[in-house]
Amino acid sequence: MAVTTDTASDERTTATDEAQVPRKQRTSGANVWFGVIAWIVGIAFFFPVFWMVLTSFKTEADAYTTTPKIIFEPTLEQYEGVFAAGIGPYLANSVAATVISTILVLLLGVPAAFALSLRPVQKTTDVLFFFISTKMLPVVAAIVPIYVVVNQIGMLDNIWTLIILYTGMNLPIAVWMMRSFFLEVPGELLEQASIDGAPLWRTLREIVLPIISPGIFATALICVIFAWNEFFFAVNLTAANAGTVPVFLVGFITSEGLYWAQLSAAATLAALPVVLAGWVAQNKLVQGLSFGAVK
Amino acid sequence: MAEVVFDQASRIYTPGAKPAVDKLSLTVADGDLVVLVGPSGSGKSTALRMLAGLEPIDAGSVRINGRDVVDVQPKDRDIAMVFQNYALYPSKTVAENMAFPLKMRGVEKEERAKRVREAADMLGLTEYLDRKPKALSGGQRQRVAMGRAIVREPQVFLMDEPLSNLDAKMRVQTRAQIAEMQNRLAVSTVYVTHDQVEAMTMGDKVAVLADGKLQQYATPPELYDRPANAFVAGFIGSPAMNLLELPRSSSGVTLGGIEIPLTREVTNAVGSRDKLTIGIRPEDWVLESTDADAGSVVKAVVDVVEELGSESYLYAHLAEDTATKIVVRGPGRVKVRFGDPIAVRPTAEALHVFDVESGERLD
After folding, report:
1. Which one of 3.30.420.10, 3.50.50.60, 3.40.50.300, 2.60.40.3080 gives the CATH number of domain B4-235?
2. pTM assigned to the model
3. Do the strands B242-247 and B275-280 form a parallel or antiparallel pair, or are they unpaired?
4. Which residue has the higher pLDDT, B321 or A103?
């Protein structure tokens, strides 16, 4: 999954770089070789994904030919099969867990990041370290206590368990990212607002947030990707009711492992929303991630 | 309308360290424009920020119209500030930027629009009211920042190097505009700059700061004619005053083989010191013929000629002491070039005499 997005953006960067290089420079031999290497690496990453998408439109018979078929009659039969196998509720769970947890992360993370950027005090670094330290413990090590707690309070196989865990999982990264965006806002603006008499929340909403909205957007997208792709909590804490798409996919491999075309269709469906989101948002995303350079 | 008083006001960033602003005391009379000027790190911006409420006042007090503002929030000090980078809200239009402080004060919508319109008229911004700051030139942005300060109708204007992001021509133009506007509105103004030309041309009074300490607080002519110490002497005026450390002679000081006499009052003030720092402004030299008697003129060799059209500045070193450099103002179209010898004589009445150690003025 992550590979897909990386590959896609790799391809794009390569393409734009090539286009922007003035013609004179391109004649140098080294550049040609770098270009060739970049294309080889790009294709090596992209090809398996491309093959997966291609396979998802084949019949099982076409998918199994020993000389792989490039030309074939495309069919949506496999996608119908995946929906018939019941991916629907899993998709709904994934959407719920992703959207709600991302909204919660933003609601909690924006004020936290603003506070931490506003006036650095001695404890600021401690707080920031605490946030990031929660990411240091391997999730595998945390799963036993989490399982016991979730079991005790009767929240196993409940979508809200995943929503809370995903919020906790993404919050530290989001606060760190957004704090760096907040730090880019010139201090003069905040001082001007305080002389003008704007209360803090109004300064945040009317003056600061419009400036850093690309950064907030990029942060939200990263949270969406992480939550959508999360597998470990989902597979351990959910079953039929609250299972997400990755859980469905794994179950599908075991039960329908021999049906390559249908498996490819399921995997493509799982990958599609994030790729689409990344593609639609690519301008904002680049703007957001390179925020510091814009000032 | 307000009088602003700094009363022994200090800002100490780290206890025990040298204060950023050290017991600053000065009074801005109602309606005056006072310029705080000094090199970077002199504490001028910090002093302004203390008045704005953006920096705490660690000792002493600051009063606006008799009211001690040490514990008053910036928004309640009835001030308006213009920042170096203008601090315009990027997501708001020009009109919204200018109206924002009024909106925060709960001024009615019609009244807001009226005051924004008036200010925009005065500053020639009417046609830009619907634009975002991004779509304005530097000079226009600067005027929007001024406009936002004007619509507030505050007791005091604070300006922190408001011209330093403009190009040279724009700066001169805007300088005159600000001075004119300030005269018209007669609002007390504290203006910070590192540019002594701005200080001299705009200020009713000028406070020269260095190392957090007030060096002199006076009108521009006073600063120029009677600098209180060698620092002010060297800081005010362009090119800078020649400050030469010279040995005493029987009736004056010796420079380049000639004796420069000192007046009786100065001689009395100088006492038994055997060395003095003598200040001579570039225009206080007289260019003499190079054939003149060796005993009456100082011989020098030209290093650089700055031809300004109406006048010129000759940067030279003394013929007999190459380490001593002087700057001499000459007429426009001066004939001398690099390496030419010149002969100069200081005007005796125009000398400034300072103590070598403390830099204090002696006469």
Report:
1. 3.40.50.300
2. 0.80
3. antiparallel
4. A103
